[in-house]
């Protein structure tokens, strides 16, 4: 994981275990994605890679945490009056890393986030009321519910939430990793998908692998991964193989269907987020029993 930061200095989140830099929880967390990418999507990706339009990517709608990055997100069908959501990594929780198999739903939180404008300056501060959902199992994701609605945030700060894609990302697609913590944008493409991504005690399913240009660093954990052609969030940045080691903390490895392990030194990963969408009921309520919801349950 790209190590989270404490204050303005790099620090270990958990006594020697928190070097999760680029995006964060131990093994690249994959936003609630099913166990493997749909074959059709992967074939389509390889056969006809899409190119981004000239749409400019900026910092509007991203947020800075005290140790990571994140984004103000809006799922399809959400209403202006719904409580807004902030997306980051499970390993970026204020309480520290979650253990394998651990899932948080509806836990009270008063965490604050610095909401950024287009240039990366502060538009203001928004505050959570609860951790709506978080896990580092199968994926590395945290979803905070705020005390403000989308309409209130737009009226007060002039900032609209980033739309959350309901579709699986496509191989070859141009992407932008936008770090609110560092005020830095990385541009690369989806190189492919890891059937399983293993880092230390954690394993993530169907993780997005970046091309080498997105060489994310500590503090970029939780950054939204945007498709510039649509402006939608397709994944959440979470880890990078920093030292070429095999399956250790900060050195994730890929494991295929047959169990073969591949190590890609210097390559970074993200967790898909389309799997979050089926788990959100009207009012942005997390309901893990909804049809199509494959997120881990407590």
Low-confidence stretches: 7-54
Beta percentage is 35-45%
The protein's oligomeric status is single chain
Radius of gyration: 17 Å
Strand arrangement within the widest β-sheet reads 3-4-5-9-8-7
The CATH topology of the largest domain is given as: Thrombin, subunit H
Structural class call reads mainly beta
Description:
This protein folds into 2 domains: 5-57 and 164-275, Beta Barrel (Thrombin, subunit H), CATH 2.40.10; 62-162, Thrombin, subunit H (Beta Barrel). The chain has 2 helices and 20 strands. It has a 6-stranded antiparallel barrel. It has a 6-stranded antiparallel barrel with strand order 11-12-13-18-15-14. The chain has a two-stranded antiparallel sheet with strand order 1-2. A hairpin with a 4-residue loop joins strand 14 and strand 15. Helix content is 6%, strand content 38%. The protein is globular, with a radius of gyration of 17 Å. The protein starts with a strand and ends in a 12-residue tail after the last strand. The model is unreliable at 7-54 (pLDDT under 50). With 298 residues, it is mainly β.
């Amino acid at each position: 994981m790209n190590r989270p930061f404490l204050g303005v200095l790099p620090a270990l989140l958990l006594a020697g275990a928190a070097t999760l830099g680029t995006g964060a929880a131990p093994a690249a967390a994959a936003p609630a994605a099913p166990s493997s990418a749909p074959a059709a999507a992967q074939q389509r990706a390889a056969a006809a890679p899409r190119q981004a339009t000239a749409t400019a990517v900026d910092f509007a709608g991203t947020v800075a945490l005290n140790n990571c990055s994140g984004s103000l997100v809006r799922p399809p069908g959400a209403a202006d009056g719904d409580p807004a959501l902030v997306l980051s990594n499970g390993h970026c929780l204020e309480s520290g890393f979650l253990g394998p198999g651990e899932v948080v739903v509806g836990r009270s939180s008063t965490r604050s986030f610095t909401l950024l404008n287009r240039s990366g300056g502060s538009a203001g501060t928004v505050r959570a009321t609860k951790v709506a959902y978080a896990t580092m199992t199968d994926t590395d994701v945290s979803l905070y519910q705020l005390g403000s609605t989308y309409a209130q945030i737009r009226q007060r700060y002039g900032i609209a939430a980033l739309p959350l894609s309901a579709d699986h990302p496509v191989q070859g697609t141009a992407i932008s990793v936008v770090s609110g913590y560092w005020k830095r944008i990385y541009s690369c493409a989806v190189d492919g998908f890891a059937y399983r991504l293993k880092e230390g005690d954690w394993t993530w399913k169907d993780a997005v692998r970046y091309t080498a240009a997105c060489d994310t660093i500590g503090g970029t954990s939780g950054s939204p991964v945007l498709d510039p052609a649509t402006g939608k969030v397709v994944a959440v940045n979470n880890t990078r193989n920093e030292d070429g080691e095999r399956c250790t903390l900060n050195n994730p490895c890929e494991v295929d269907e047959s169990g073969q392990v591949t190590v890609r030194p210097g390559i970074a990963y993200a967790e898909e987020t389309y799997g979050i969408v089926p788990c959100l009921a009207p009012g942005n309520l997390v309901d893990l029993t909804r049809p199509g919801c494959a997120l881990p349950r407590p």
